[in-house]
Amino acid sequence: MKFAILSDLHANRQAVEAVWAHAQAQGCEHTVLLGDFVDYGADPAWVMDFVMARHAEGASVVKGNHDDAIRHEGSHHMGGHVQASLAWTRTQLTPAHVAFVEALPLTIVKDDCLFAHANVHDPAHWGYLHGRLEATRSLFASHQPFVFCGHMHEPCLYHLSSTGKSGEFHPVDGTPIQLSPMRRWLTIPGSVGQPRDGNPAACYAVFDVSKAELTFHRVPYDHEAAARRVLEAGLPASLAQRLIDGS
């Protein structure tokens, strides 16, 4: 079975549509959505409808910190541009959208896989996996050989040997990676809706469970149209520029 692993959609309809079409062409049979469906982008209601439709079809869906901030604004320390886009986002969502997000879990286990938005060792506090040390903490905190997290907006893959030796590397687009059973693995697929590695193309990953084979993908989309939508919505111009620059 192939899993399509999508994270950090961030209300970017154009990116989500492009990635979803690409994932279907890859023959993916299960969808994993790693949170942060709203904020930053101009189409939060459309993206939430997409997420809810995938959930109804059986997708594994976890909550992100921006999703959580829709209801718990006082518990999140975010910058001024985020507060502005969050305030606008709240006006776009229906009570059904908010109730759905509120009920989402922080982590999901499916077979040999563990899914979370930020990390596994302390998922409720949204700490970033900035490097090997934090990734190793999450690998030690899990019992599954395959861990998938979002939150970082840049694709990366970490691994941990049976002797406790860890490593990391940055993947090449479209190149399958065999995940050895002698190691445990933590995948960050990157962001669908707001990549931050200098490449504006959307990020996601495909995991072939039967082969233990992981492939990271970059999907070009009309990021200029998405940026125009951000400006037309009256959101901060810096959010539009990020889509153009991939920064």
UniProtKB/TrEMBL annotation:
The lineage of its organism: Bacteria, Pseudomonadati, Pseudomonadota, Betaproteobacteria, Burkholderiales. It comes from the Bacteria. It comes from Aquabacterium commune. GO terms for molecular function: phosphatase activity. SUPFAM superfamilies: Metallo-dependent phosphatases (SSF56300). One of its GO terms (cellular component) is cytoplasm. Belongs to the metallophosphoesterase superfamily. YfcE family. Residues 1-211 form the Calcineurin-like phosphoesterase domain. This is Putative phosphodiesterase.
